[in-house]
Each structure stands twice: as C-alpha cells, then as structure tokens.
C-alpha cells in the first residue's frame, strides 16, 4: 500500500474506494512516507535511460516506484502532485488501483468556505485541474491506465517548484542538524541559514522555515504524549548513574502529579564549598511552558564569573514552597549556610529565609528595588528633572550612614515626599538594600544590578517560554557546561601567561603570583590608583592612628583609614575589603607611606580570589573531574566520525569520478550498517521494556534528596 496510515473503508460494489482530499496540503505529506522515498522524490534524475513522461501501458514494479516517478515528473514540469483515490479489492482488501493528480485538482468544499473562522481564510489552491496519472494492478506489476498531461493553470520554473508543498520535506540528515541547533538555542531563521549554507543555496534546501517549525512542533507534541514528568524523572535517574555526585528531589502530590523539583550536579555542589559565602536567590525567570518559576542559586567564582549552585522549578511562590526548597538545597550543600543571601523583595521568600537560614545576612537586590522606584515615583521623575541625579547620588555615592541619612532627609523635603507611605516602608528596611548600610557586609563585590542582568543573558539564549520541563534540564546542563568551559579558559590563561606590571612595588609582583588574573587586575587598579592619593595624620588614639586620605590636589572626598599600631592591619571608611575582599587604594596609600609596600599582608589575601581557591578536596562529594570520555560515549563516536567524514567529503567533491566512487561506497556501507543495527535492536528489546516497567510509578516517592 502507499501508506500504512491510509484508512480502511467498507465495501463498495466489487471494490472498496478510499477518497482522501485536503484543501491546502498533499496527502502524501500526512502519511508516513519512507525517508529514502521522500529524499529520492526531491532529486531529479539525470539519467536518460528511461522515459521522462508517463504513457498508457507504462509498467512499474511497485506503487512506490510509480509514485516516485510521477513526483519527479511533476517536479520537472513545475507542479506538485498528491494521491487522490486508492482502491482496495473487495475480498482480500488489497490495494489494486491508485490515482495521482495535480495538487490543484478538485474544488474546496462549500461547507468549509461558509464556516466561521477565527483566523483568516487561507487562499484557495484547488481550481479543478484535470492532470492525472492512474495506475492499476496488472499481475505482479502496476500499469498506467490513464494519463492526462494538460493543466488549467500556469506551471512553475524548475527552481520555483522546490517551494511547493508537494516537493518540500525535511530529510533525515536535516532533522538531526535541526534538533542539534534547536537544542543549542538557535532560532529558526538562523537554522535556515545553516541549511542553506550546507545545501549550496536557499532553493536547494528542500524545505522552508515553516517546515522546520512544524517539525519541531511535532517533536514537542510527541514528547507531551510520552509524559513530561516521567521523562524528567528518567533523566534524573540517568544522570545519577553517570554522575554519583548528582542529587535531585521531586515533590509528588497524592494524585501522582509532579510538583516542585530541585537538582544540582557534582560541580555545582563542590563549587558551593569554595565560593558559597555569597548566594543570589532569584525567582524572576519564567522560562518554561508551564510558567513554573525557575529559581537558580548562583554566586561568583575566583575569576569573578557567575557560577551555579543548583536550581529548582517551583509550582508556586508560597512561603511553604520556598521553605521546602531552601531546606532541600542546604541538605544538598552538606548543611553549609551562606554568609550573605541576595534576593528580590518578596515576603514569602523573606519568611522562608528567616526560618531556614536565621544566621545568614539577607540583602535585597538593589536592581529590583530601583525598578520599583521608577514605577512608584514616576510622577516625581517627570515633574523634577534633577530628582534622578540627586536620588542616584544619595543611593550610590554616599559612603557613611550619616551621609546617606542627611541626603535622604534633604531629598524628602526638597521634593515633597515626606508623606509617601511606599517610600517610608522601603526606608524602614534600608539596612537590607542601601549600599551605605551594607558596605561592611561581604558580598564578594557582587554588583546586584550587573549580576541580575548577567543572569538574564545567561539563560535567554538557551531556554524559551515554550520550553518543556524535561527539555529545560537538558538546556540548563548546556549552560553549566558553557560556564565551566569559560572557567577552565580563565584557569589556563592565569597559569600559562604572566601579568603585566604597572609599578615597581614588590607587593605587585607577589599579588600577580597569588591572585587569579581578574582578581589581580582589580588589586592592580587599586595599587596604581593609590599613587594619586595623599595621606595625612588625622588623629591618634592610644595604639591606633587615623589618617585622612584624599586625591592629590583636592580636599574631598576624605576617606579615613585607621591603622593599628605595630600591625599591618587597617580599616577604611569605604569598606572595600569588607565588601569585596580586595584591599582598597586608600589603605594602600597609607601602607605605601608607612611600609614601602614590600609585601602583601597575609590577612588581606582572601583565598577565594587566589589561584589555589579550589585546591582543597571535597571528599564528601564524588566528582568526575578526572573522567576521560572514551569511545563508549555516543557523542564522542559521532564527533570522531564527523571529522573523518569531512575529510572524505572534501576529496569526494573534487571530481565526478571521486563523487560516484564515494556515493557507491556509502550506499554499500549504509546497507551493511542497517543490518548490524537491526540485529542489535532485537537483542535490546526486552531490556528497554523492563526499564520502562521499573520506572513507571517510581516517581511517587520523593520530597527527599536522592543521592547515589
């Protein structure tokens, strides 16, 4: 038969007849046509050994040959074809006749024309064209019994014919490439650019952007049918088998439906042990098809790069959900709590943090706070042009708490905001978001504005609003791998290159050996800038002395550095070291005057910024850092074969003789591989069935960390 999806019908006289009509698309596209037939139909044969036009009495060995021949003929002439009638024998129900017609045969049904539509009616394609090639069973072969070559419409050029639906199709090789590009976050228009480049031009691709979108949509629908939650659970089990340090937790309700879930790989868990002193915790990314809030735990590593400490998908944003998540996350991180956690201004989140992390400093993300100012004080911004400048100086430029309080009061009076209840409520929580109050709180130098923007950019290229949960975790792993690779790049750069020094101080040479390159550049900037400052003794109190540090030839701003007598220990009113962990230019200015900057004081070297930040082994978390990918890995095998084939491809395209030789060889190897594949599939059938049975229903236990 032409297709395994053709419907069965009752008896009609001596023959059963199947009539399939479609207004705007070919029947053959709806049926599961074999891939080689589909691909052969898109190629015009250059052979002159056979007839180029059908004739009555022409014989074919099978239906597929007849269909392929007429499709190739239609392509050359400039039209597309479809299967119109398929007749079955009365007794045996076997196919005995098929009519192939022009896709513009017939007319659209009146009932469909009159039907109320919610979307614009598509243009009519059927105009009663009579072109046809009918075949009928003749012994063991098929014979052409009717052929009408004339059309009642204009025929297209050979180039334009490739854009007709009947001659479009996504080949097996293209499907593989499309899936790979789609998983990497490449949009459809760029996928089409790649296909065009690979095919030698747009007209040679064989499909259009809509075909790519339909293919990806069909893949997503099939995944829905398989069960998104079950696929997610299967993925977690597979990851845990391959990576013992991988952990996950899933909530399941009484009906067996998936609730919130959390997961973290071994790298993320180990990274937290080194750099988990400051964590950002944000639920503002709605990046999956179910609109489940995506909650990433992130921080900053020794190269000042964003790193992940695990993530979760929540069914809602209640205090109960956040409490479950924080407890689960802390358990996965070996019970260690961060020193500082930065979040959005969310009451449910704040309640959970107080309950689960009572000893952690909770700081609000300044970026989110400032966005709310624009919303609640829009009338002030519009009425007073100077408000933005005054407000920015008050928030960002004030150094001490007294300076902030003075400027804040001045702004309220100047712009008539004394009675603004929203502003008063925010002011009551100023210790959680105003920089002047938080300068002495260690935040690893994390600028909340830049970090939030960085996180948005980090994920937007990989996940979209239509991403399924089970696909989401795959995309999340891609982002982690990309980040890990960038970290390794920085490691190699720090080890294999030498920093360029800007001063003659020995302290700079020592810092270049101790710090990672990015951390050293921050220190170097402070050291170099310290030469543009001067220090004068301000007061002396017992064993401590205070110096006023100002820019050269200026009287302000004044930073006060307190130096303990007989010790290389100092504090500065800018609190850069307390906030970031890098000694500031003001202290270096005083050190330069007192100690000639011969050495970097050990108490000012924070290990998290050094080249040895990850030298301590985390024995409680098994990692796969030393794992070497072997030929047992399918991705590695595919990559190696692809590199080999590209070399052969270049040789095979150099001449027609080499092309023909390579084409024959590939056909032979292809058939041999299919035979090997068939044999393996028979042996593995039972194993795959058992796996499905064992995993069904297993996801009903959950709410605890699952660790191998």
In the predicted model, the low-confidence regions spanning at least 5 consecutive residues are 1-48, 681-703
**Alpha-beta content class:** alpha+beta
What is the average of the pLDDT values?
A: 80
Indicate the proportion of strand residues. Answer: 15-25%
Radius of gyration based on Cα positions: 35 Å
Distance between the termini: 51 Å
The helical percent reads: 40-55%
Largest sheet: 8 strands, mixed
Number of strands: 18
Q: Which descriptors apply to this entry?
A:
single chain, 708 residues, alpha+beta, 8-stranded mixed β-sheet, 6-stranded antiparallel β-sheet, disordered N terminus
Structure, described:
- With 708 residues, the protein is α+β, with helices and mostly antiparallel strands.
- The chain is built from 26 helices and 18 strands.
- Strands 13-12-9-10-11-8-7-18 form an eight-stranded mixed sheet, with helices on both faces.
- Strand 10 and strand 11 (306-313) form a beta hairpin.
- The chain is elongated and about 115 Å long.
Question: Quick gist of this model?
Answer:
This protein has 708 residues and is of the alpha+beta class. α11 (319-332) crosses α12 (347-356).
Topology:
Blueprint: E1 15-19, H1 27-30, H2 35-41, E2 59-60, H3 63-77, E3 81-89, E4 95-102, H4 110-114, E5 132-138, E6 141-148, H5 158-161, H6 172-183, H7 188-199, H8 209-226, H9 228-242, E7 247-252, E8 258-264, H10 266-275, E9 278-281, E10 294-300, E11 306-313, H11 319-332, E12 340-343, H12 347-356, E13 361-364, H13 366-376, H14 378-383, H15 387-397, H16 401-414, H17 421-428, H18 435-438, H19 448-460, H20 469-496, H21 506-514, H22 517-530, E14 533-541, E15 544-551, E16 559-564, E17 570-572, H23 576-580, H24 585-595, H25 634-652, H26 656-695, E18 706-707
Parallel strand pairs: 9-12, 12-13
Antiparallel strand pairs: 1-3, 2-6, 3-4, 4-5, 5-6, 7-8, 7-18, 8-11, 9-10, 10-11, 14-15, 15-16, 16-17
Helix pairs in contact: 2-3, 9-20, 11-12, 15-16, 21-22, 22-24
């Amino acid at each position: 038969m032409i297709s395994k999806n053709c419907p069965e019908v009752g008896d009609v006289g001596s023959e059963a007849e199947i009539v399939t009509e479609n207004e705007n698309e070919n029947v053959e596209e709806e049926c599961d046509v074999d891939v080689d037939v589909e691909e052969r139909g898109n190629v015009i044969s250059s052979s002159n050994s056979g007839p180029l036009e059908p004739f009555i009495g022409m014989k074919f060995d099978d239906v597929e040959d007849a269909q392929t021949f007429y499709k190739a003929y239609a392509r050359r002439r400039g039209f597309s074809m479809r299967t119109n009638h398929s007749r079955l024998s009365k007794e045996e129900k076997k196919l005995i006749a098929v009519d192939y017609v022009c896709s513009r045969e017939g007319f659209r049904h009146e009932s469909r024309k009159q039907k109320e539509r919610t979307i614009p009616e598509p243009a009519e394609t059927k105009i009663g064209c009579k072109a046809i090639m009918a075949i009928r069973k003749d012994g063991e072969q098929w014979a052409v019994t009717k052929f009408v070559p004339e059309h009642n419409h204009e025929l297209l050029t050979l180039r334009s014919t490739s854009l007709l639906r009947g001659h479009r199709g996504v080949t097996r090789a293209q499907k593989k490439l499309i899936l790979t590009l789609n998983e990497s976050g490449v949009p459809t228009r760029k996928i089409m650019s790649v296909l065009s480049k690979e095919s030698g031009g747009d007209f040679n691709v064989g499909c259009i952007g809509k075909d790519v979108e339909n293919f990806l949509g069909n893949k997503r629908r099939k995944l829905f049918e398989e069960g998104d939650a079950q696929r997610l659970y299967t993925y977690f089990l597979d990851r845990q088998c391959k990576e013992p340090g991988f952990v996950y937790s899933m909530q399941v309700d009484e009906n067996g439906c998936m609730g919130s879930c959390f997961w973290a790989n071994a790298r993320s868990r180990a990274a937290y042990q080194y750099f988990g002193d400051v964590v950002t915790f944000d639920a503002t990314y709605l990046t999956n098809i179910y609109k489940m809030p995506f909650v990433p735990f992130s921080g900053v590593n020794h190269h000042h790069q964003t790193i992940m400490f695990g993530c979760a998908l929540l069914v809602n944003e209640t205090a109960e959900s956040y409490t479950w998540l924080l407890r689960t996350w802390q358990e996965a991180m070996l019970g260690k709590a961060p020193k500082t956690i930065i979040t959005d201004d969310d009451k449910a989140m704040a309640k959970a943090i107080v309950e689960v992390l009572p000893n952690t400093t909770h700081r609000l993300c300044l970026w989110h706070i400032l966005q709310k100012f624009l919303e609640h004080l829009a009338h002030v911004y519009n009425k007073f042009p100077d408000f933005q400048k005054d407000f920015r100086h008050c928030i960002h430029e004030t150094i001490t708490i007294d300076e902030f309080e003075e400027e804040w009061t001045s702004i309220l009076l100047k712009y008539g905001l004394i009675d603004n209840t929203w502003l008063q409520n925010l002011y009551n929580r100023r210790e959680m978001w105003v920089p002047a109050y938080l300068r002495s709180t260690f935040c690893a130098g994390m600028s909340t504005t830049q970090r939030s923007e960085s996180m948005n950019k980090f994920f937007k290229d990989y996940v979209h609003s239509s991403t399924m949960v089970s696909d989401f975790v795959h995309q999340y792993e891609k982002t982690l791998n990309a980040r890990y690779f960038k970290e390794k790049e920085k490691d190699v750069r720090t080890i294999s290159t030498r920093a360029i020094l800007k001063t003659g101080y020995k302290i700079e040479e020592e810092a270049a050996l101790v710090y990672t390159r990015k951390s050293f550049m921050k220190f170097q900037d402070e050291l170099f800038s310290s030469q543009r400052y001067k220090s004068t003794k301000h007061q002396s109190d017992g064993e401590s002395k205070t110096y006023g540090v100002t820019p050269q030839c200026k009287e302000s701003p004044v930073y006060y550095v307190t130096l303990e007598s007989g010790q290389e220990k100092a504090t500065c009113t800018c609190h850069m070291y307390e906030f970031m962990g890098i000694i500031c230019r003001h202290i270096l200015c005083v050190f330069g005057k007192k100690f000639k900057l011969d050495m970097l004081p050990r108490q000012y070297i924070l290990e998290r910024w050094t080249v040895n930040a990850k030298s301590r082994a985390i024995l409680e978390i098994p990692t796969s850092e030393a794992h070497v990918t072997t030929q047992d890995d399918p991705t590695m095998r595919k990559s190696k074969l692809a590199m080999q084939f590209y070399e052969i491809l270049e040789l095979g395209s150099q001449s027609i003789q080499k092309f023909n030789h390579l084409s024959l060889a590939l056909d032979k190897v292809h058939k041999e591989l299919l035979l090997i594949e068939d044999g393996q599939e028979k042996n593995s059938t039972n194993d795959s069935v058992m796996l499905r049975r064992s995993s069904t229903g297993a996801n009903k236990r959950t709410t605890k960390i699952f660790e191998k």
